[in-house]
Amino acid sequence: VNVGCVPKKVMWNTAVHAEFVHDHADYGFETPSVKFNWRTIKDKRDAYVRRLNDIYENNVKKAHIDIIRGYGKFTTDPEPTIEVEGKKYTAPHILIATGGRPAVPSDSEVPGASLGMTSDGFFDLEELPRRSVIVGAGYIAVEIAGILSTLGSKSSLLIRQDKVV
User: Fold this and answer.
1) Does the pTM exceed 0.85?
2) What is the pLDDT of residues 83-96, one digit of tens each?
3) Which end of the chain, N or C, is less surrounded by CB atoms within 10 Å?
4) Where is this chain's protein located in or outside the cell (predicted)?
């Protein structure tokens, strides 16, 4: 919800609108001075995600479910038990929603790696970059490249291959 599906779909829909505006003249619409403002969509997208977070958390509370935030680990206790920041929790069923964190190589592994950002960083961008390079060929990379390109960033998509095609 925070840096994945929901905000990406908002940005995808933003790009779809940009495509519609681009094609308006072909359908007889005159739109000579349409301007895109990255800050506006970023602020509205982030507010939407915060609102969804509040809705989800309220629904969990209404269902009398405890949310325990922190780093947890399973214990060797005979019953299913986890320990979070020194406190143990035992229950017949335990769900640990880990989320995900991207692996970022060091500069010694990939020279210049610290100059880049992960796909999570895309949602932190304060302005539309004039140029962008997206590394990867997964659906997230392709979608972000398409979004940035459609909104006006000169974008390149780098794909590793073992052979020339």
Assistant:
1) no
2) 999 999 999 988 87
3) C
4) Cytoplasm; Mitochondrion
Q: Where are the beta strands (DSSP E) in the chain?
A: 72-74, 81-84, 87-90, 131-135, 154-158
Q: At what angle do helices 5-23 and 38-62 cross, to 10 degrees?
A: 140
pLDDT at 83: 95
Instruction: Report the C-alpha dihedral over residues 50, 56, 57, 60, rounded to 10 degrees.
Output: 180
Looking from the CA of 25 toward its CB, the CA atoms found within 13 Å total: 5
Percent of the chain surpassing pLDDT 70: 98
Domains annotated on the chain, with CATH: 5-67+100-158 (3.50.50), 68-99 (no CATH)
Average pLDDT over the chain, rounded to whole?
91
Q: How far apart are CA 3 and CA 111, in angstroms?
A: 26
Q: Which strands sit side by side in the sheet containing 87-90, from one edge to the other?
A: 72-74, 81-84, 87-90
Confidence at residue 136, expressed as pLDDT on a 0 to 100 scale: 86
What are 12-20's contacts with CB under 8 Å, separation 24+?
A: 12/143, 12/147, 14/41, 14/147, 14/151, 15/146, 15/147, 15/150, 15/151, 18/150, 18/151, 18/152, 19/150
